[in-house]
């Protein structure tokens, strides 16, 4: 029997690490099944840095869950963010930290969700609950995901549970959180080799609310203006996506991870929603969002409620 474990499309560090960490846990429960950690897209630079650091192979790249007897979803639940044929699959488990939307299963399942900053924080609890030993490498992978999702504990999504898990994992992994964490986050801000189209797809999510369709893409940087140098190319790609997919709004959020601010390129017929909810003006398609770093906590709920 084959079990695929997948994180969301445009995988971030948490989606990749959670697939690996969950696969390692599942192997403790059942050694007759074939447990295959998978990914639905390319690795970002930060994730590449981590996998090299710990010398771990990336999950298997797939574009369909056909061939899996069961699928485990990590770091997402929405079918919009999952494999295109996910509605045909048997989902046996979900471990996630997002709002629940656009998911329906035909059978009962194991579902573990908590409003914490990272899926790997929940996986850490699952290891503890099941008395499964965490080795140095897997501790490092989980720690990396927590640092990534919480932006080294600076994101408003970060909870005391995330901090505690990270501290315990850092001890097991024998890693200095701040030194390693900054190196790792900086590796992810090297955007120099990406085309406008690739930039938008590093971390892009799609949403439906009140009959409107919108996408919010996010990149991390230490220099917002260097990303904005490609503004006109980025706008061209966004505008073609808007007409192709019939989107009402597209936000390309460029987040300064050192100063914890963002600027967003905002396009679409519902752009004024952004002006309204952040009480700001969009100047030449760009809105400044002071203090905004978390799409999950500071952007999606506001847009969803007001679009
Ligand atoms: Mg994620
Ligand atoms: Mg996550
Ligand atoms: Mg993320």
Present as ligands are: magnesium ion
Structural class: alpha/beta
| Average pLDDT taken over every residue | 96
Shape: globular
| Rg of Cα set | 19 Å
What is the count of helical runs?
11
Taken in chain order, the helices and strands follow as: EHEHEEEEHHHHHEEHHEEHEH
Largest beta-sheet details: 6 strands, parallel
The proportion of residues forming helix, as a percent range, comes to 40-55%
Total count of strands: 11
Describe the structure.
With 307 residues, this protein is of the alpha/beta class. The chain is 40% helix and 21% strand. It has helices spanning 13-29, 45-54, 119-129, 136-150, 160-173, 177-187, 196-201, 224-228, 231-245, 272-278, 295-306, and strands spanning 2-6, 34-39, 60-61, 70-74, 91-96, 110-113, 204-209, 212-221, 249-256, 261-267, 286-289. It has a six-stranded parallel beta sheet. A hairpin with a 2-residue loop joins strand 7 (204-209) and strand 8. Helix 3 runs antiparallel to helix 4 (136-150) and helix 4 (136-150) packs across helix 6 (177-187). The longest helix is centred in the N-terminal third of the chain and has 17 residues, at 13-29. The radius of gyration is 19 Å and the shape is globular. One magnesium ion binds at residues 14, 75, 97, 118-119, 149.
């Amino acid at each position: 029997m084959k079990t695929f474990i997948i994180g969301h499309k445009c995988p971030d560090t948490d989606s990749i690490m959670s697939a690996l960490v969950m696969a390692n846990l599942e192997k403790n429960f059942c050694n007759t099944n074939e447990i295959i950690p998978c990914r639905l897209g390319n690795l970002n630079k930060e994730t590449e840095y981590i996998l090299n650091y710990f010398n771990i192979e990336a999950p298997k790249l797939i574009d369909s869950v056909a061939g899996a007897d069961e699928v485990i979803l990590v770091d997402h639940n929405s079918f919009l963010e999952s494999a295109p044929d996910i509605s045909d699959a048997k989902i046996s488990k979900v471990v996630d930290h997002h709002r629940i939307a656009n998911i329906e299963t035909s059978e009962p399942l194991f579902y573990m969700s908590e409003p914490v900053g990272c899926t790997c924080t929940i996986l850490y609890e699952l290891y503890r609950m099941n008395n499964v030993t965490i080795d140095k490498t897997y501790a490092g992978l989980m720690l990396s995901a927590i640092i990534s999702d919480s932006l080294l504990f600076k994101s408003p999504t970060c909870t005391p549970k995330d901090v505690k898990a990270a501290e315990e994992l850092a001890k097991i992994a024998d890693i200095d959180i701040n030194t390693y964490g900054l190196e790792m986050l900086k590796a992810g801000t090297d955007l120099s080799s990406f085309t406008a189209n690739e930039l938008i797809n590093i971390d892009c999510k799609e949403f439906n609310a009140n009959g409107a369709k919108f996408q919010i893409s996010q990149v991390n940087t230490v220099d917002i203006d260097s990303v904005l140098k490609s503004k006109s190319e980025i706008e061209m790609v966004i505008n073609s996506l808007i007409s192709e997919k019939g989107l009402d709004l597209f936000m390309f959020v460029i987040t300064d991870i050192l100063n914890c601010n963002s600027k967003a390129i905002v396009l679409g017929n519902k752009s004024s929603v952004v002006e309204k909810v952040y009480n700001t003006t969009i100047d030449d398609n760009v809105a400044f969002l002071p203090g905004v770093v978390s799409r999950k906590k500071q952007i999606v709920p506001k847009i969803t409620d007001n679009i």
